């Protein structure tokens, strides 16, 4: 799971990391804590317009929900994360894995660690603190207006100890797979292979932070 994320880098650092420009640089603001349940913006590189970095509402809005009340849909449906095992089958996601994949920028995220019946947030980031990219899906609600979801996979050894209840982790792509994730010619089997082997080999650091984060 990935319910909260961090992107503390300045605009020029994000642009330099991926060698692309922000579509709306004047609107960009770094953030230390972004909750998925607030449905604010993450920053993505969409597959079909991969020459720019754009903001996208956290919580994917499927095609069949775009004609209704989007805020109501997001309040009633959990589309902040998408399980890799079901993105080709679940109604909210199945229209997007071949045509609407995206990279989602971050330099940290929080995972719940359970001990004695209590959840403690752990902050997870590269030891180098550099920007990485989650594998995601997106929809274009209107011209230039996007929504997105972070793909999650079964936890590896480290994140099984951190997220020790549901044992999931967001799919942080290794740098060698970032551009491949955006390729327009991938078929279903190739996408599934990327989700299976694409997790980064870079070293993570994870440590507990205050439970006040949940307030």
UniProtKB/TrEMBL annotation:
Biological process according to GO: protein-DNA covalent cross-linking repair; proteolysis
Gene3D superfamilies in alphabetical order: SOS response associated peptidase-like
GO molecular function, one term: single-stranded DNA binding
Species name: Costertonia aggregata
Keywords for this protein: Covalent protein-DNA linkage, DNA damage, DNA-binding, Hydrolase, Lyase, Protease
Entry-linked PANTHER family: ABASIC SITE PROCESSING PROTEIN HMCES (PTHR13604:SF0), DC12-RELATED (PTHR13604)
Protein name per UniProt: Abasic site processing protein
Pfam families: SRAP
Presence of keyword Glycoprotein: no
InterPro entries reported in the protein's UniProt record: SRAP, SRAP-like
Domain of life: Bacteria
Protein family membership: Belongs to the SOS response-associated peptidase family.
Top-tier EC class: hydrolase
Enzyme Commission code(s) on record: 3.4.-.-
């Amino acid at each position: 799971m990935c319910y909260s994320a961090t992107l503390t880098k300045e605009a020029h650092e994000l642009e330099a990391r991926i060698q692309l420009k922000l579509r709306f640089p004047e609107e960009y603001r770094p953030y230390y804590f972004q909750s998925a349940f607030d449905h604010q913006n993450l920053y993505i590189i969409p597959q079909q317009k991969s020459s720019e970095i754009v903001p996208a509402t956290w919580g994917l809005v499927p095609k069949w929900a775009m004609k209704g009340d989007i805020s109501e849909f997001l309040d009633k449906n959990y589309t902040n994360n998408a399980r890799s095992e079901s993105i080709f089958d679940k109604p909210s996601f199945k229209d997007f894995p071949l045509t609407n994949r995206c990279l989602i920028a971050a330099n940290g995220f929080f995972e719940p660690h359970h001990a004695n019946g209590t959840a403690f947030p752990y902050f997870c980031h590269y030891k180098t603190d550099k920007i990485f990219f989650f594998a995601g899906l997106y929809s274009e609600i209107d011209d230039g207006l996007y929504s997105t979801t972070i793909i999650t996979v079964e936890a590896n050894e480290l994140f099984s100890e951190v997220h020790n209840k549901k044992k999931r982790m967001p799919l942080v792509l290794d740098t060698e797979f970032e551009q491949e994730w955006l390729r327009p010619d991938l078929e279903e089997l190739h996408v599934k292979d990327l989700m299976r082997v694409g997790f980064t080999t870079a070293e993570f650091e994870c440590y507990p932070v205050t439970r006040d984060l949940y307030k």
